[in-house]
Amino acid sequence: MRAIALCLSVAAALAELETIKLAGGLEMPANGLGTCCRKTAKGPPIVAATKAYLELGGRLLDTAMAYGNHADIGRGLRESGVPRDEVWITSKISPSRAANYKQCAKATADLLEELGVAFVDLLLIHTPKLGEEKTVELWRCLVDAKARGQVRAIGVSNFNGPEIDALEKATGEKPEVNQIQYHPWSSKEWHATVAALKARGVVTTAYNSLGGSRFPGSHGDVLPALAAAHGATVPQLLLRWALQKGCAVIPGSSTPAHIAENLAAPAFALSADEMRRIEDAPTPAGWWEGARGTTGPNKYADHEAVTAFHDAAKKDRRSRHKTEHR
């Protein structure tokens, strides 16, 4: 009964779809469907999840070359019956498979063909791991893809402020979006990065908002109490926190009831005091497991918020990224 009630409540919650305005003027849906890094992220399960998400009113599909599910996402979109121009599609260029301009241009054309669309709304460079020179080369490719109409907006993923500065300095074009791991227990350095980029017109898309597999450990006392005060669940509370920070969110699920639950997150608002209490709450037990066998809430090291390309080129961030996706 609870699942049915959640599904029925979504239509009202999405009466006015929550969006975020990008620097270029486009309105990006704020509450998307993440399609990364789970057993159900390929084949019939992700086709079904895509259809369920769209049928429930969601309008942002987040995918990537590295996820290997472009064709499945495209099939889900077509089978949903929702017109292409009503859906925002984000994808990402993988530096592992597109390490120079020519390879990036081919990868862009290939992903459009795989998705079965004429353009994507947002295309990102997935990581800065190639170092500054090669990453600038990929960025020039994205700038040109936008000029050709293959892409409506361009951005990056897992970048920090200085790395974004380098792209803008080299090309005159600033990323409109930076997709990173971001949640209440991110380090102060990464909270500062998100705030600084927001002030410059760079929108953060937050992933890992729910701690991975809905963090099976204890939620503690603060989060359930705050959620209950709004008639919400803890996952909805955490998504609402990110949305009120000005971030887009892309929680992943293949279960219609959970997808509906995630989409209902815009249905309430948190006070400034409640936002602070969430951030001050202890990190929930079982929250995201860190790299190299360590336990902790953050994928990124603190210094990675300010060190341009150096640590990425050394593959520090790359190894953490692979650990999370294992």
From TrEMBL:
The keyword Oxidoreductase appears for this protein: yes
PROSITE patterns documented for this protein: ALDOKETO_REDUCTASE_2
Pfam families linked to this entry: Aldo_ket_red
Protein name as annotated: Aldo-keto reductase
Domain NADP-dependent oxidoreductase: 49-280
Family: Belongs to the aldo/keto reductase family.
Gene3D superfamilies: NADP-dependent oxidoreductase domain
PANTHER family registered for this protein in UniProt: 2,5-DIKETO-D-GLUCONIC ACID REDUCTASE (PTHR43827), NADP-DEPENDENT OXIDOREDUCTASE DOMAIN-CONTAINING PROTEIN (PTHR43827:SF3)
Organism: Aureococcus anophagefferens
CDD domains: AKR_AKR1-5-like
Keywords per UniProt: NADP, Oxidoreductase, Signal
Residues of the signal peptide: 1-15
